[in-house]
TrEMBL record:
Its EC number is 2.6.1.39. Keywords: Aminotransferase, DNA-binding, Pyridoxal phosphate, Transcription, Transcription regulation, Transferase. It comes from Aneurinibacillus soli. This is 2-aminoadipate transaminase. GO terms for molecular function: 2-aminoadipate transaminase activity; DNA binding; DNA-binding transcription factor activity; pyridoxal phosphate binding. The gene is lysN_1. Homodimer. Its cofactor is pyridoxal 5'-phosphate. In the C-terminal section; belongs to the class-I pyridoxal-phosphate-dependent aminotransferase family. Belongs to the class-I pyridoxal-phosphate-dependent aminotransferase family. The keyword Transcription regulation applies. Signal peptide: none annotated. InterPro entries: Aminotransferase_I/II_large, HTH_trans_reg/aminotransferase, PyrdxlP-dep_Trfase, PyrdxlP-dep_Trfase_major, PyrdxlP-dep_Trfase_small, Tscrpt_reg_HTH_GntR, WH-like_DNA-bd_sf, WH_DNA-bd_sf. Pfam families: Aminotran_1_2 (PF00155), GntR (PF00392).
Length: 496
């Protein structure tokens, strides 16, 4: 069993092992009834003492996650009714894997499968289908299949459809001030693949990657999967603390800086113009790459955010990742990665190894939206509805949130960041919220380093308006209950 242990962390090895195995059990990676490695085998594989291995299994047994049977071993807990007739698959644990704790997948799996009663999802970074041009997209797909059926029988270019790349280049110039040609971009299957391709191409074991703290958790998974050393840079209302990153660079400069400068995920902050210039200067000084993840800059309420880093880049340090999944069609999975010189050439090579190209049909279906101004008209409507939904959340929080709870007021994007008193752990609060039918993401999953557990992310773009208000009200009730309970514990034992 492969478990990444941080021996320099203040968290005991016993607790790290317990947490890692518990996560695998809860998300279904370790099925009920599966036999875990013996304590001797676990100790040998992880280079730990037998005592540490025994203590980790004992903690899991106390949590009710495993059953220890004298002389037989340790098994994932299983109801007797489930055990009958099921084949044991514990031999699979002998196969070494190199998958880190994929926190994005774990939380998605947990909230959609393990807790099927959840109806009010504030966790999904998705947009309600009413906001998408579904009928128009369906018409384009139908037209293509009727008039150009050959499309479904051919592979598209590895770099992406030339017409679409040209249309996107014009769109980025009009609305983001980015001057690139169609030859300087690559179409990817969503921005998540863009992040993965950047990491595959430029990040290897031991390479240093700087990320915001907090940051997009699926990016953390990607960089960890490449064996990177991750530097966590705090975020405030002006975005990434570039001054702190500069101090870190003096000790150990990163090879790659990953950032979401416009309507940052999860806080919603916007990197100020001053810091954008500082970040570009830093990249030039230390010869490092910047991966600019621009998923949300088109979703602004009022003024557009400052110019993208890519539009200001004069020396080829910025790899620009732009998703159109959340703007037009999540099912189409169309995004781009823009870069110059040998950086782009190597990204295209990685894309070719990964999947040989993004499906041509969805690229062609998306093309008309960029050619005749339809995307601009659509975005006007989408921004108006997202603004209304954001205000529903803000108004409901103002009315029902208990004392001690604060939140951001984002001027764009899909989510806002809620903070509770520091003694409250939102990982624990999540359990009660799920029982009440409400899902959110606890703040801890957004940190690559030491997590801050008194935050949570709310996504306001997914639920219908009435359900959104109901979800926020219920969440406030759960938070109030947790705060009151902690007050009672503190009054009994002030050291808690």
């Amino acid at each position: 069993m492969h478990i990444d242990l941080d021996r320099k962390s203040g968290i005991p090895l016993t607790e790290q092992i317990r947490q890692s195995i518990a996560d695998r059990i809860r998300c279904g990676l370790l099925a009920p009834g599966v036999r875990l490695p013996s304590v001797r085998k676990l100790a040998a594989e992880l280079s730990i003492s037998l005592v540490t291995a025994v203590q980790a299994y004992e903690r899991l047994a106390q949590d009710g996650l495993v059953i220890r049977q004298q002389g037989r071993g340790t098994y994932v807990y299983q109801d007797e009714t489930e055990a009958e007739g099921e084949a044991q698959t514990d031999w699979q644990l002998s196969i070494m894997d190199y998958v880190p704790r994929a926190r994005f997948w774990q939380h998605h799996h947990l909230q959609s499968s393990v807790v099927p009663s959840v109806q009010l999802k504030l966790s999904a970074a998705e947009i309600n289908r009413e906001l998408f041009p579904i009928e128009e997209m369906a018409e384009e797909l139908y037209r293509l299949i009727q008039k150009e059926p050959w499309i479904i029988s051919e592979y598209g270019p590895i770099q992406g459809d030339a017409q679409l790349r040209g249309a996107i280049a014009e769109y980025l110039h009009r609305h983001h001030g980015i001057r690139i040609t169609k030859e300087e971009m690559l179409v990817t299957n969503g921005s998540q693949q863009g992040i993965d391709i950047v990491a595959r191409t430029f990040v290897g074991p031991g390479d240093v990657v700087a990320v915001e703290a907090p940051t997009y958790m699926a990016a953390i998974d990607v960089f960890r999967g490449r064996g990177a050393t991750i530097l966590s840079v705090p975020v405030d209302e002006e975005g990434m603390r570039v001054d702190l990153l500069t101090a870190m660079c003096d000790v150990r400069p990163p090879k790659l800086i990953y950032t979401t400068p416009s309507f940052h995920n999860p806080t919603g902050s916007v990197l100020s113009m001053r810091r954008r210039k500082q970040l570009l200067d830093l990249a030039q000084s230390y010869n490092c790459l910047i991966a600019e993840d621009d998923a949300f800059s088109d979703m602004y309420f009022g003024e557009a955010p400052p110019p993208s880093l890519k539009s200001m880049d004069q020396s080829g340090h910025v790899i620009y990742l732009k998703s159109f999944s959340k703007l037009l069609s999540p099912g189409a999975r169309v995004a781009i990665a823009a870069a110059t010189g040998s950086v782009l050439t190597r990204l295209i090579s990685s894309k070719a190894i990964t999947d040989l190209g993004t499906p041509l049909l969805t690229q062609k279906a998306m093309l008309p939206f960029f050619q005749n101004g339809r995307i601009e008209a659509h975005l006007v409507r989408m921004r108006a509805r997202l603004y209304e939904k954001r205000n529903i959340v803000l108004n409901t929080l103002t009315r029902y949130a208990p004392s001690g709870v604060t939140w951001t007021k984002p001027m764009g994007g899909l989510n806002l960041w809620v903070s509770v008193p520091s003694r409250i752990q939102t990982d624990i609060v999540l359990g009660e919220a799920l029982r009440r039918g409400v899902a959110f993401l606890p703040g801890s999953v957004f940190y690559a380093g030491e997590p801050e557990s008194h935050h949570l992310r709310i996504v306001f773009s997914y639920l219908p308006d009435d359900q959104l208000q109901e979800a926020i009200k219920t969440l406030c009730e759960v938070l109030a209950q947790a705060i009151e309970q902690k007050k009672e514990e503190y009054s009994i034992n002030p050291l808690v």
